[in-house]
């Protein structure tokens, strides 16, 4: 049996088996705009689809785009995943994370209030553009609740897939690109040095580990993916700023302000957002949803852009191997600012979302059900998690892409008790001790 037939058959069985299940709805977008959605595929002729296969053709980057649409917000809900997308996404999602088919069934039955191909809205000032990247082995629709919330408030959100590192994805030419789950030949020093970095023992040991990390990371799967994801997002950004987007996006981007971009993402996609934003002139801000930094050039360095870093509840649940659960230290404290000024840059906002695990920074926090829900996404209620995430992200982007009132950010945090500002106090103490010994 061919792999295509296997995937299609599994998806059909999964979908049919739950055809009569109650459809799960995500939060309704509460902005003034209706939300349209369209799919497209960016092509980067300068790179190969698979860097290891010279015959794989140009790099193709599938995208789903949500945008402000004309008319009143839709009262009818559309499928969260169209049937042809679900046919590849759902089996891969279950396989990649070791879930049973029934665990991901609510993803297949979920509904969202959008209209495919709806006429685009226009604005005198133009709509800022947010380029979003999914988490490793996840799918581009994974943060639909956030994307539709932003679109309803006047943003164009382009969520891209990173073929090979996403769930299985079928390209417009019919080719199926499966998830590459295995990795061989990684430099063993990478894991050892990263564990030392995450442990947060003291500044001297971390500095030593970072030297090894810098040497080893390029010879690892994560290091190669970091470069490829960054090049994917930069290719999309170039297409947007140069008016070279796929023809299917001409209407959706007709009202875009192509000089006001933000990059956002979850997990590995969040780390990509930060490292890409620093390299793109049009990028005004970045949003990182619980993504550990892997870019050697961003440790003990400024990201040089406003950054919202939303963190999972590591003191309660843990996250990285070897990471302490102390509230005064997150491994991401070591990135995005100079250590000597840790916590001093008001444009770098670090916030912990209490009661949430890493995968809770996706729509799965509202879609997953059953006895294993807490161990997968945390015990926070889905609506509570998504509302907090949506409100703070919108306030942050409004301040930095629309020159909004900076007090909105503080109000968003105050309005959600589960949001807790994080201060890198352990790193600050190390720097004070260093200053005393100089």
How are the elements arranged and paired?
Blueprint: H1 3-17, E1 34-48, E2 58-69, E3 78-79, H2 83-97, H3 101-109, E4 111-112, E5 115-116, E6 127-133, H4 144-152, E7 156-160, E8 169-170, E9 176-177, H5 188-199, H6 203-216, H7 221-241, E10 256-266, H8 268-277, E11 283-289, E12 307-311, H9 314-317, E13 348-353, H10 364-367, H11 373-377, H12 382-401, H13 407-414, E14 419-421, H14 425-437
Parallel strand pairs: 1-5, 6-7, 6-10, 10-11, 11-12, 12-13
Antiparallel strand pairs: 1-2, 2-7, 3-4, 8-9, 13-14
Rg measurement, Å: 21 Å
Major beta sheet, specifics? 10 strands, mixed
Determine the N-to-C terminus distance. 68 Å
Fraction of residues in β-strands: 15-25%
* Helix-strand category: alpha/beta
The 3D shape can be described as: globular
Mean pLDDT: 93
Helix count from the secondary structure assignment: 14
Q: In total, how many beta strands?
A: 14
Helix content: 25-40%
Instruction: State the low-pLDDT regions, or none.
Output: 1-22
Strands of the widest sheet, in order across it, are 5-1-2-7-6-10-11-12-13-14
Order of helices and strands: HEEEHHEEEHEEEHHHEHEEHEHHHHEH
């Amino acid at each position: 049996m061919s792999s295509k037939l296997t995937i299609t058959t599994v998806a059909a069985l999964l979908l049919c088996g739950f055809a009569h299940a109650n459809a799960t709805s995500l939060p309704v977008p509460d902005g003034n705009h209706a939300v349209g959605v369209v799919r497209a595929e960016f092509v980067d002729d300068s790179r190969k689809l698979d860097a290891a296969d010279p015959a794989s053709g140009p790099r193709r980057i599938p995208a789903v785009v949500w945008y402000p649409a004309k008319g009143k917000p839709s009262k009818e809900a559309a499928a969260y995943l169209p049937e042809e997308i679900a046919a590849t996404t759902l089996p891969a999602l279950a396989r990649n994370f070791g879930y049973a088919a029934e665990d991901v069934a609510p993803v297949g039955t979920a509904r969202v209030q959008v209209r495919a191909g709806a006429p685009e809205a226009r604005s005198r000032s133009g709509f800022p553009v947010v380029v979003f990247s999914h988490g490793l082995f996840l799918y581009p629709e994974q943060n639909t609740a956030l994307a539709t919330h932003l679109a309803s408030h006047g943003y164009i959100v382009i969520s891209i897939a990173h073929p090979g590192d996403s769930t299985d994805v079928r390209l417009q030419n019919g080719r199926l690109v499966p998830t590459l789950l295995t990795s061989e030949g990684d430099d063993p020093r990478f894991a050892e040095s990263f564990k030392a970095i995450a442990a947060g023992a003291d500044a001297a040991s971390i500095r030593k580990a970072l030297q090894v990390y810098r040497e080893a990371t390029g010879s690892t799967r994560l290091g190669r993916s970091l470069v490829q994801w960054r090049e994917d997002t930069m290719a999309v950004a170039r297409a947007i700023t140069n008016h070279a987007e796929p023809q299917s996006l001409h209407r959706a981007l007709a009202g875009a302000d192509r000089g006001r971009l933000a990059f956002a993402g979850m997990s590995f996609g969040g780390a990509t957002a930060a490292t890409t934003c620093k390299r793109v002139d049009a990028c005004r801000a970045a949003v990182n949803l619980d993504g550990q930094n892997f870019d050697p050039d961003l440790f003990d360095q400024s990201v040089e852009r406003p950054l919202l870093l939303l963190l999972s509840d590591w003191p309660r649940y843990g996250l990285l191997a070897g990471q302490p659960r102390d509230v005064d230290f997150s491994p991401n404290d070591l990135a995005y600012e100079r250590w000597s000024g840790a916590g001093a840059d008001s444009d770098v906002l670090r916030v912990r979302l209490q009661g949430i695990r890493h995968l809770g920074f996706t729509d799965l926090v509202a879609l997953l059900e059953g006895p294993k829900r807490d161990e997968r996404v945390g015990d926070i209620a889905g609506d509570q998690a998504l509302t907090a995430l949506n409100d703070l992200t919108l306030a942050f982007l409004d301040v930095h892409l629309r020159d909004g009132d900076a007090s909105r950010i503080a109000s968003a945090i105050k309005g959600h008790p589960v949001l807790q500002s994080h201060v890198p106090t352990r790193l600050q103490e190390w720097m004070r001790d260093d200053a005393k010994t100089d």
